[in-house]
Sugar ABC transporter permease (Streptomyces luteosporeus), 458 residues
Amino acid sequence: MTTATAPPSAPPPPKAAPPVPAPGPGRRGGVRGTRGWVAACFLLPALALLGALVLYPIGYSVYRSLFDASGTSFAGADNYQEVFTDARIRTALRNNIVWVVVAPTVATALGLVFAVLTERVRWGTAFKLVVFMPMAISMLAAGIIFRLVYEQDPDRGVANAVWVGIHDTFAAPAPYPGARPRPNTGLKEAGGGAYTTWAAVRAGSPVLMPLVAVKPEDVAGAKDAAPARPAAGKITGTVWLDFTRGGGGAPGAIDRGEKGLAGVTVEAVRDGRTVASATTASDGTFTLPPAADGALLRLPAANFATAYNGVDWLGPALVTPSIIGAYIWMWAGFAMVLIAAGLAGVPRELLEAARVDGANEWQVFRRVTVPLLAPVLAVVVVTLMINVLKIFDLVYIIAPGSSLDNANVLALQLYQSSFGTNVNQGVGSAIAVLLLLLVTPVMVMNLRRIRRERKERR
């Protein structure tokens, strides 16, 4: 006898999910959905600040640029016409173009080089810290620092101290800069800073060549001058400082205690040609060969040339490049840090694959590293372009009054037109509007780049 078994019961059907309520009049669907009045409460303070600090000043600047200096008479486009016809403002506009082209490019290039090279340097982190450190300094402090760096006096300005040191390494300075003969003592000017004897010299008669206006430090430790002894067939003489400390002594005569001038070049000149030359000894004496008999003696200008004082960094010709150099010193570290962050995200396998394929380091850098860093480089360049368009404080602090017009930029001219001696806030507002128009294309380009990157990530 068999027993029938019941088939297994089917599992119960799943419960239906509760219906999602449709969004009502005060509710919006989606993950970011919220009530409209709540969003408005959060956005209103930001919109109020945006309007008060950005929109209103822009609108008022455009409005004010259409009126004259007093602000009562409508001027139309006269202020904008003055912006493009005034010589100072045109200089400022030209300098701004130089700033936009040079400063971001050089700062970004240096940042790229620093970021790539410090990857393989043992002390790369310390180097990056040193390069980035100027970013912690305000523009005011940096301007004061570089105003001192560019001082004309080599004893105070670092730039000229280095430059003069390099120059004097290859060109020896004059032994007695600024010295000159004592008047009415047998020497006359020969042009170009040189001096010659009045008459031809003869062998057997020592020649006296007294000088004055020699700096005390140039004869510190010098020996006393000695009268030259006659030599058969030769020309002898003495070059000395014809000055007796404490007074006394006879002009044109070697008195006790007067110092000989060593290292002075003496030339014998006949018919415009140098036939012989000699250099004075420590006691100021010199001896010329018989060929000098009957010739004029000349002290070349090289003996008295003014000491090389370096480069006029803040002069009209170099003031703008010098200030750009100070800006690059500050912002190259900023570029380096951003580029180094982008470099850290570059896939190393791509670089290794390029090296395996036979590319050298320069080819890897130029054809792999730089293209992969192109978005980061674009961010750095655009940021620095916006920054240099409004540069003001560095120019105002570093440029001296004599070169301020040559270093002028639009932001500085805006300040001078609006609050300087000849106040014309109509022209100042027109310059502000021009600056806004110059910055706008860069901002639009930056926004398009950001949107394009977002689409690529999606």
In short: The longest helix spans residues 425-457. The two ends are 72 Å apart (CA to CA). Residues 196 and 298 are 4 Å apart (CA to CA).
